Amino acid sequence: MDRDGTLIKDAHYLKDPAKLEIIHGAGDSLIRASAAGYYLFMHTNQSGIARGYYEWSDVHACNQRMHDDFGWPEDFFLKVCIAPESPGETGGYRKPSSRFEREMIKQFELDPKECWVIGDKWLDPQTGLNAGMSGALVKTGKPIDGNTMIEAKKNNVPIYEDINAFVNERILAYE
């Protein structure tokens, strides 16, 4: 899943952990999904590193603050991908590249048809679709415009109010 706009409020080039705001309900719903046996991964674009706006240590400090605020253990996500590339750079992990997702499919022997990429911007589900996974959008970050709604409908990408609704309606509804 995505970080900014999905798990935490989207703050333009977040550098200071004190300015991080969690999206309420996200933490508990993911704890329930993890307890039910679902593997959780986080994939976040952080072009502020390439642009020189902040350092790797700033991203790690913000991630630690997010974990602390949600009450998650250090190893809550099986793997975390922080893509430092700026837009336009190719060959790396920046979404919509599905390099990270494909690596996780191989490493954990996952069936891509059973996997989801969730986020607040079209590039999030697009990343999942590029890897043969499903994708979903949440309304907790960037506004979802008409073009994105058309793409979502065309690609069978559902739109949820938040990650909690996704987990409750798509994942845990069948448990």
Features:
three-stranded parallel β-sheet; 35% helix; 175 residues; Rossmann fold; alpha/beta
Helix content: 25-40%
Number of helices: 6
Oligomer description: single chain
What does the largest sheet look like? 3 strands, parallel
Low-confidence stretches: none
Strand order of the largest sheet: 3-4-5
Strand/helix succession: HEHEHEHEHEH
SS class: alpha/beta
What percentage of amino acids are in beta strands?
5-15%
In the CATH hierarchy, what is the superfamily of the domain at 17-112 and 163-174?
HAD superfamily/HAD-like
- Give the CA-CA distance, first to last residue: 21 Å
Q: Which value, in Å, is the CA radius of gyration?
A: 15 Å
User: How many distinct beta strands?
Assistant: 5
Shape: globular
* CATH topology grouping of the domain at 17-112 and 163-174: Rossmann fold
What is the CATH architecture descriptor of the domain at 17-112 and 163-174?
3-Layer(aba) Sandwich
SSE blueprint and pairings:
Elements: H1 26-35, E1 41-45, H2 56-70, E2 79-83, H3 99-108, E3 116-119, H4 123-130, E4 134-138, H5 146-154, E5 159-160, H6 163-171
Parallel strand pairs: 1-2, 3-4, 4-5
Describe this structure as you would to a colleague.
The chain is an alpha/beta fold. It has a domain at 17-112 and 163-174: Rossmann fold. It is built from six helices and five strands. It has helices at residues 26-35, 56-70, 99-108, 123-130, 146-154, 163-171, and strands at 41-45, 79-83, 116-119, 134-138, 159-160. The strands form two sheets. Strands 3-4-5 form a three-stranded parallel beta sheet. A two-stranded parallel ribbon has the order 1-2. α1 (26-35) runs parallel beside α6 (163-171). The chain is globular, with a radius of gyration of 15 Å. The two termini are 21 Å apart. The model has no long low-confidence stretch (mean pLDDT 96).
